[in-house]
Amino acid sequence: MIAEVRMKQAVAALAAYRYREDLNGWLKNYMRAFPSMGSRDRRELRALVYGAVRMARLFPETSAEQQVVMGQVFIAGIDSAFVQYARTRNGWELPELPETDLNAIQICRKWAHSGITVRSSDWFPAHDRISSSIDQHELLNGFLMPPRTWVRIRSGREHAVENEWRAKGWAWGRSEATPNARWVESGRPLDGLNTFQNGYFEVQDLASQRTIRFMNPVSGESWWDACAGSGGKSLLLHDQEPGVKLFATDDRQSSLLHLHERFTRAGIRSYSRYCVDIDQRDPLEQAGSFPRQFDAVLADVPCSGSGTWSASPDWLSRFEQHRIAEYAERQFRLTSNLLPYVREGGRLVYLTCSLYADENEKVVDRLCTNFGWKCLDQDYVQASSEGGDVLFGAVLTRR
After folding, report:
1. How would DSSP label each residue in 19-36?
2. pTM (predicted TM-score)
3. Which tens digits make up the pLDDT trace of 307-327?
4. How far, in whole angstroms, is CA 369 from its chain's centroid?
5. Distance between CA atoms of 19 and 64, rounded to whole angstroms?
6. What would the DSSP string read from start to end of 297-355?
7. Cα 51 from chain centroid?
C-alpha cells in the first residue's frame, strides 16, 4: 500500500538526516537519489518528514514511526487515509488518537496524559528570552500546525489569480484581516503560473505583508531599503505607494539580481539599487547616485530568524543560543551606521523576524539611549494562528 511505502521512505529519510544542515536543502538533495519519485511523491514525503521533525522536538522519546503519524494528525487530520491506515499497524505503537473537536494544544495534553513524555516550556530554544509580548500559547499552537504558503496579490488582479488556481484544482483561502493576502496549499509550483510570470502576485508571508503598518509611505518620500535582500519589503512598500523614490541595497549581488528580476516582472522601473556593506562606517560612500539623506530608512536586519521556525522546525534543534547576543550586537552596529542617513524629521523602520527581546526591544532601547532618538511605535506581528511567521517592527525618529 502507498501508506506503507511512504512510511518506509519517511523513516529512512529521518534516519539519514542528522540535524546538521538546513532540512529544506538537505531533503532536496536526498530525493535526487530517487529519480523515479514524481512531484506528488516528493510533496507527500516532504510533508511526512517535516511533520515528524516537529514532533521530534516536542516528543523526543517517541519512535520515528510515531513521530510521522503524530505529525500527520496535525497536518491531515485523524480521518486522513494515512492516519487511518496507521491505526491498523500494531507494530507502530501509536499514541491514542484524539477526538476531532480538540485543538493542537489539547491533543498534546491528551498524549502527555497517556504517558508520552512532552517537552513543555523548553520546547523552544532560549524560551526564557522570548519577548513577553509574544503569545506563547498561540506560538506553540501555530508551530504544531503546518505553515501555509502566503502570497500578496496586487490590487485588481485578484480574480485572474484565483481563477488560475481554481483551474489547477488547488486549495486556497483568504485572510479576513489582510485583503490582498491569500494562502495556497504548500508545495505548489507557483512560479510556473501565468499570473506569477505576469507579476500579478508575490510570494510573501502574512506577517511580512502586515509590516506595512510600520512604514506608512507618503508619495514623494525618499526611501532607502538598506537590507533589501531579494526585495520583498521594497515591493510591498512600492505597491502601497508607487510615488515613493526607492533606493535598495544589499551586500550580496545575487540578491540584488533577484530583486531586479522581481521588479521587472512587476513592471517597476523607477528605482535605484547598489551593492553595499552597511557594516561599514559610511556604507554609501561609493554609491554616487544615492542621496545622503532620506525621509525614511528601512532596516530589515539579519537576525536569528526564530519567528520563522514554524516553517523550518529543524532550527529548533540546530540553533546555538549564544548566537542571540552576536545577532543583537550586529543589529545595533548595523542600525547605528544607518541613523546618520535619516533626515531631520524622518524615521527609521527597524524590522526583524525574531522572537527574542534581545534582538528587538533591547536593541531599540539601546539605540534610543545611545543616540538620543525616540521610539514612536514598536510591536510584534504574530500570524502564528494563521500559518504565518512572527515579526517585530519599530519606528524611530530623532528627538
Report:
1. SSS-HHHHHHHHHTT-TT
2. 0.93
3. 999 999 999 989 999 999 999
4. 30
5. 14
6. EEEE-----GGGTTT-TTHHHH--TTHHHHHHHHHHHHHHHHGGGEEEEEEEEEEE---
7. 17
